[in-house]
Write a structure and sequence with these properties.
With 462 residues, the protein is of the alpha+beta class. The chain contains eleven helices and 22 strands. Helix 6 packs across helix 7 and helix 7 packs parallel to helix 8. 48% of the residues are buried.
Length: 462
């Protein structure tokens, strides 16, 4: 049986129950304190089939049930997700203007490994059509960087630049993702393509490629190749620095033919700075851009060149953007919470200016404890403040909010997640299985109000 989120009814209902004593951030809760149970997800034939496909695509089989995983609804979803849901309805009806509904997911390492974004991609594409893979980095940004749908392989000789690094250049020209890969030596190359395994099969259906790079004074040339076929030699030399999007003419492929890997090979006559590539299919459907950089903070986006980033985001035309940050910020003990709140508001203001119609969602940090002086994992003092600040800013900016700590079961649950092999021993990162459960629950949370408005909602199977 495919694991969904345990919904028993498609209707709005709440019940009152009592809970055993537990610890909260404000102290113990009485054993008889009444609590209102959270709404449940909606299960339909469409959502059940989409979960089955997403779980096969990302895990090879149905996800095993786990009592540590809880459904959490998205706060303010009916209004915050209204545009996204309307775009999905138009896509399903065949009336969407460009035949694509795009989702841009920004975040730190949890996004950069493309586990739960990959689950969302598979789920939404099964329900509404496969529009393609989306935006990917030009080369691996660090050792553990991965993407669920493509294999990124690069030779030595690439330097990675993003806002977490001290070597960020003046002007912050970093494009859509916020990261650049640069090289100068001849024959240094990077390749984007299928890895020959089933998990990378989606790349072969790509029929439209856009390569993003930076043109600049003294920029060098690179050869753009498709497998063994040379497509073009491109010069990146320009009078001033700026983002360029190149759309190569691909060979006509028959149905069932697989696109060969896309390769960039540096010519060695100047610096080449690559930003990434977007990969899409000709057919209508959903596209999910996974835009994560390990170790980053939301406020790092303020160091990016805003006009260049805004232009790139507008070209992608997201119907929903997601920001998943907070855990790294909890370790910045010298940053006042008011500064964090103000910076998060500035970041969301940039999105609102660049994509005013898009729906907005904040995904909160995990339960992230800290070791005390005797080595015991105890609650991190500032985590609750950051979650409260995020919720407040989300409400002020008209964004939905998904409480990841509540999805885990609340404060103090990370130990149980580690024991259950849903999280790693660092008590910060989830395991593959944990991230896939996050994708599963987040998919149900994103679609709950959409499905409540549809007549096809059915009760969950036992």
């Amino acid at each position: 049986m495919v694991l969904a989120c345990g919904a028993n009814s498609p209707t709005e209902s709440t019940t009152v129950a009592t809970v055993p004593p537990t610890e909260t951030e404000t102290g113990p809760v009485a054993a008889t304190e009444p609590v209102v149970q959270l709404p449940e997800p909606v299960v339909t034939e469409a959502s059940t089939a989409a979960h089955a496909q997403a779980q096969t695509r990302t895990f090879g089989q149905a996800l095993p049930a786990n009592a540590n995983v809880h459904f959490v609804p998205i706060a303010d979803a009916p209004t915050a997700l209204a545009h996204f849901h309307a775009a999905l309805r138009e896509l399903a009806a065949g009336t969407d203007a460009d035949g694509k509904v795009r989702v841009a997911i920004y975040g730190s390492s949890s996004v950069a490994v493309d586990r739960y974004p990959g689950y969302l991609r598979g789920y939404l594409q099964h329900r509404f059509g496969d529009g393609g893979i989306g935006f990917v980095a030009a080369a691996p940004l660090w050792r553990w960087h991965r993407h669920n749908e493509v294999e990124l392989t690069a030779t030595k000789g690439w330097a990675v630049e993003h806002a977490q690094k001290k070597t960020l250049r003046e002007g912050g020209q970093l494009g859509l993702l916020g990261a650049a890969c640069s090289a100068t030596r001849k024959r240094v190359s990077t390749s984007i393509g299928g890895g020959g395994s089933e998990s990378f099969s989606a790349y072969g259906d790509t029929r439209k490629v856009e390569l993003h790079y930076i043109a600049q004074p003294k920029g060098g040339r690179f050869a753009l190749e498709l497998g063994d076929r040379k497509l073009a030699t491109i010069s990146t030399r320009a009078s001033q620095a700026g983002v360029v999007v190149h759309t190569p003419k691909l060979p006509t492929l028959a149905d069932g033919d697989v696109l060969a890997p896309l390769r960039v090979r540096v010519m060695g006559d100047g610096e080449v700075r690559l930003l990434g590539a977007s990969l899409e299919r000709d057919e209508p459907g959903v596209v999910v851009d996974s835009l994560g950089i390990g170790g980053t903070r939301a406020a790092n986006m303020l160091a990016w060149d805003e006009p260049g980033w805004a232009k790139a985001l507008q070209a992608r035309a997201p119907d929903l953007f997601v920001l998943a940050y907070g855990a790294n910020e909890c370790m910045d003990l010298d940053e006042p919470i008011d500064t964090y709140r103000a910076n998060l508001g500035k970041v969301l203001a940039r999105f609102a200016a660049a994509a005013p119609e898009a729906s907005c969602l904040l995904v909160g940090p995990v339960d992230f404890p800290v070791k005390d002086e005797i080595g015991t994992w105890v609650p991190r003092p500032r985590l609750g403040e950051f979650i409260a600040a995020q919720k407040g800013v989300a409400t002020e900016r008209g964004c939905g909010y998904f409480d990841t700590r509540a999805f885990m079961g609340g404060q103090g649950t990370m130990d149980a997640w580690v024991v259950a092999q849903l999280a790693k021993a660092d008590h910060l990162h989830f395991s593959k299985l944990g991230y896939l459960h996050l994708g599963r629950v987040l998919a149900d949370a994103l679609m709950r109000d959409f499905d409540l408005a549809a007549p096809a909602a059915v009760a969950a199977a036992p």
